[in-house]
Structure formats: structure tokens, C-alpha cells
UniProtKB/TrEMBL annotation:
Keywords: Hydrolase. Its EC number is 3.5.4.28. The keyword Amino-acid biosynthesis does not apply. The lineage of its organism: Bacteria, Pseudomonadati, Thermodesulfobacteriota, Desulfovibrionia, Desulfovibrionales. PANTHER family: AMIDOHYDROLASE-RELATED DOMAIN-CONTAINING PROTEIN, AMINOHYDROLASE SSNA-RELATED. GO terms for molecular function: S-adenosylhomocysteine deaminase activity. This is S-adenosylhomocysteine deaminase. Transmembrane segments: none annotated. Residues 111-423 form the Amidohydrolase-related domain. It holds the Pfam family Amidohydro_1. InterPro entries: Amidohydro-rel, Metal-dep_hydrolase_composite, Metal_Hydrolase, MTA/SAH_deaminase. The keyword Hydrolase applies. It comes from the Bacteria. It is an enzyme of class 3 (hydrolase). It comes from Pseudodesulfovibrio profundus.
Length: 431
């Protein structure tokens, strides 16, 4: 579980080089740890020093700050005062600077945001970047995936994936772990990223004691996820959700991702079911003859602590069911396009008032782990109005809340962790 006193402070933007141990330098600022050594950073945008213990408070000045708080969503000529990794004050430079005593860092003509949160990934598959077919449909994609060394962790590729998350401004990830939950939590803990690692429940066996291995982490937590309504037995799904509820931690499930899922649940002909049964899977599966969202609701899987991932193949009634349950939906638009499963009704989801997040999904079904690229894709292909604040909420405040980090991340306000991202031009030019 989260250890409040142990969160590391960082400022995040995009990559450059690292001159000293303890620093990851970026074009616009630097990721730093509270225990980092004395260092000097010089780049096009910023030049400053930090002491070993960072005893003095720091004021960060930026042209704008998108706080994601209801009372002051965007502040012009913004100032954020941080001390020991915690935001102490947020306001205008004019109001805060005169009485401030400490280090002032002027970041220039940029927009600061809360650090980004990737709500859904599969970092175990980092070594499969570019190795699975694009746009050929779910069955073809799975057939190819099953031929890959999916359970061979590649430490180098995993390190590259983690670095990619950091470079793009991501400070937290909701990661699905099929086999290596403790290893993934360890990697993320060592990286300084915040995390929620979901142990994926698949099959028909309920563990004797727990789905979740023991482990205490400074920067995150372990939880449990159901793989899907058809690959995970309904009793296992109920048990997994019950354990998450009992522990007051989030639960996740892939839901209504593709047409094959809808067909399997409805007891209709399915090429994917044929594929699974040919491999000895789902031989005793009994279709509930319900739509996926309807079945998830009947099993008690949908509530305010559930993250439902994809939700592509849904009806208006399904959307209302999810909205009424209080669940959060994670959209993975580029992954859906990459595999070729279709496009979620983003506009209807937004209009429904359902809390929405964005996730990159795995590198077996996406081009990169850059959430800004995910946001650009969504904005460019969105049919209707999608405001900057609505889009930013999907990668900051909403995922922080559903992943159990709302007390620490997701907004720029006093008491939150001093972790920031900067808005790239690819986003700014769309608004």
C-alpha cells in the first residue's frame, strides 16, 4: 500500500541526458529524488542547482499551470511552491513570489500539468513492440501473440519501456501482470514511478488464501484484475472482486473489447472461441447469453472501485449501466485501432458523465507508451467538442482517483506530490 511519507518528488517533462547519478535530465526540467546528490542542470529551458537534502522550499514559475482543480483549472503566470516533495502553495507568481524565500526556477513559456497517469498497460509484453500484426482483427492478433515468447521477460526492453513512460511525463502506471506481479512491482518501485500492479486472474481456480502476493511498497500497491468474462470463471471473478473490495483497493477487467467477446457471451458462433477450444480452453464454458456489460453487472463486478478497460462494443443501455454503477472506463483508442477491433463510442461515454481514463495498453498492440500521443489521437478523431480540461482529466485526475492515488496525485494543489508534466506542442496546437 501507499506509504505517505515515502513518496519521491519529481518534475517530469521530456528527455535529454543525465550528468550525475540521481538525476534524469529533460529538455524542460528534471526528474529528481529528494535524496539526490548536488547537481547542476543546464538545458535550453532551465539551469539550476539543488542541494543534497533540498531543505529549502522551491518555487516553480511557468507561463501556465493546469491545476485540474475545480476552483482554478488554469492559472496564468503560475507559481507552485514545493518543499520536501510536497506542493505547499499554488497561485500566481505575482501573489506568491514577494513573500517567498527559497530557490526560484523559471520554466519559461510552458504549461505545467499534474504528472500523467497511464491507467492501463501490460509492461510484461514490452519485448513484443512491433512484433504483432496491425489492423488484422482480434483473432489474428491473438494467434500471432500466442506464437511469441510472451512470458520471457526482457529486462533491457522493460527498462526502455519504463524510461519511455518517464520521458513522456508519466508518473504513475496501472499495470496488468499475468505472471510476474512482484517482479513488475519491484521494477516500478526501483524506477521511482508510482504504480498499481494488478495480478491478473485467469481460469477456473480460486487461490486458497489470496490472489495478491505479499509485498509493501513505498510508491504503489498490488491489486487484482479479472482477465475477461469468458477466460476467467464467474466464481473466480466474484472472488477477485470480493478480495479487492475487502481490501479497499481497485479492481480492473477487460470488458466489451471486441465482437468475438460479444458473440461468446451471447452463445453465438465465434472464431475466437473455436481457437481457444482447439487449445483445450473453455471446453466447459456456458454462455450467459447476455451482453458483456450486462453480465459484469450481474456478477457484481461494476462499482465505484472498478476500472473497466476498453468498453468498445457497448449499447446505450450498457453505457447507462456502467454510469449508474459508478465504475470508471479506461479507453485505449490506439490499441483498439492497432488490433482492429473498432472504435469505442467515445462521445457517448463522455456525454454520459462516466469517469474516463486513457491507457496505452501493451507494446504488443501499440506503437509507444506516450500518453500525450494517445490524447492527440483521441482529440483528432473525436466527433464533437472535447475540451482541454476534459482531455487532461483522462490522464491525471480520473486515473489517480480510480487507482487509489487521488490523495497524492492527479491535481496541482497543496498536499499533493510535487510531480509535474509539461504540455507538448502536439497538444497545445489542438486547442
Amino acid at each position: 500500500m501507499w506509504k505517505r511519507s515515502s513518496f519521491r518528488a519529481m518534475v517530469v517533462a521530456s528527455p535529454l541526458s543525465a550528468p550525475e547519478k540521481g538525476w534524469t535530465v529533460t529538455r524542460k526540467t528534471a526528474i529528481y529524488h529528494s535524496q539526490s546528490v548536488r547537481g547542476h542542470v543546464t538545458s535550453k529551458y532551465v539551469s539550476y542547482e539543488r542541494s543534497r537534502e533540498q531543505r529549502m522550499p522551491e518555487l516553480f514559475r511557468a507561463a501556465k499551470a493546469a491545476t485540474m482543480t475545480p476552483d482554478a483549472p488554469v492559472i496564468e503566470d503560475a507559481a507552485i511552491i514545493a518543499h520536501q516533495g510536497i506542493i505547499r502553495e499554488v497561485g500566481t507568481y505575482r501573489d506568491l513570489a514577494p513573500s517567498f524565500s527559497g530557490t526560484i526556477t523559471d520554466l519559461g513559456d510552458i504549461t505545467l500539468t499534474p504528472g500523467l497517469i497511464n491507467a492501463h498497460s501490460h509492461l510484461e509484453l514490452a519485448h513484443l513492440r512491433g512484433k504483432c500484426p496491425q489492423g488484422a482483427g482480434f483473432v489474428t492478433w491473438v494467434e500471432n501473440l500466442l506464437q511469441q515468447p510472451i512470458f520471457d521477460l526482457d529486462e533491457d526492453e522493460l527498462d526502455k519501456a519504463v524510461d519511455e513512460l518517464k520521458r513522456s511525463g508519466t508518473v504513475m502506471v496501472g499495470d496488468i501482470a499475468t505472471r510476474f506481479a512482484k517482479q513488475m512491482a519491484g521494477v516500478l518501485e526501483a524506477s521511482g514511478l508510482f504504480f498499481a500492479v494488478f495480478v491478473e486472474a485467469i481460469g477456473e481456480t480460486i487461490p486458497k488464501k489470496t490472489f495478491i502476493p505479499k509485498g509493501e511498497y513505498e510508491n504503489g500497491l498490488l491489486s487484482v484484475a479479472g482477465h475477461s468474462l469468458y477466460t476467467t470463471h464467474r466464481d473466480v471473478l466474484r472472488a477477485a472482486k470480493a478480495e479487492a473490495t475487502q481490501r479497499s483497493i481497485p479492481f480492473s477487467i477487460h470488458l466489451a473489447e471486441h465482437d468475438e467477446e460479444v458473440a461468446i457471451m451471447a452463445d453465438r458462433e465465434s472464431e475466437f472461441l473455436d481457437l481457444l477450444q482447439a487449445r483445450g480452453r473453455l471446453l466447459d464454458f456456458v454462455a450467459p447469453q447476455k451482453r458483456p456489460v450486462e453480465q459484469a453487472a450481474e456478477l457484481g463486478l461494476l462499482d465505484e472501485t472498478t476500472l473497466a478497460v476498453h468498453c468498445v462494443k457497448v449499447t446505450d443501455e450498457d453505457i447507462q449501466t456502467v454510469r449508474d454503477s459508478g465504475a470508471t472506463v479506461c479507453l485505449c483508442p490506439r490499441s483498439n485501432e492497432y488490433i482492429g477491433v473498432g472504435r469505442a463510442p467515445w462521445e457517448k461515454w463522455l456525454a454520459s458523465g462516466t469517469p474516463l481514463c486513457l491507457g496505452t495498453d501493451s507494446l504488443a498492440s501499440n506503437y509507444d507508451l506516450d500518453l500525450w500521443n494517445e490524447a492527440v489521437y483521441l482529440k483528432k478523431n473525436f466527433d464533437g467538442e472535447l475540451s482541454f480540461e476534459q482531455l487532461l482529466a483522462m490522464v491525471t485526475r480520473n486515473p489517480a482517483n480510480i487507482l487509489g492515488a487521488g490523495q497524492y496525485l492527479g491535481t496541482l494543489e497543496p498536499g499533493k506530490r510535487a510531480v509535474f508534466a509539461t504540455v507538448p506542442d502536439t497538444i497545445s496546437q489542438l486547442f
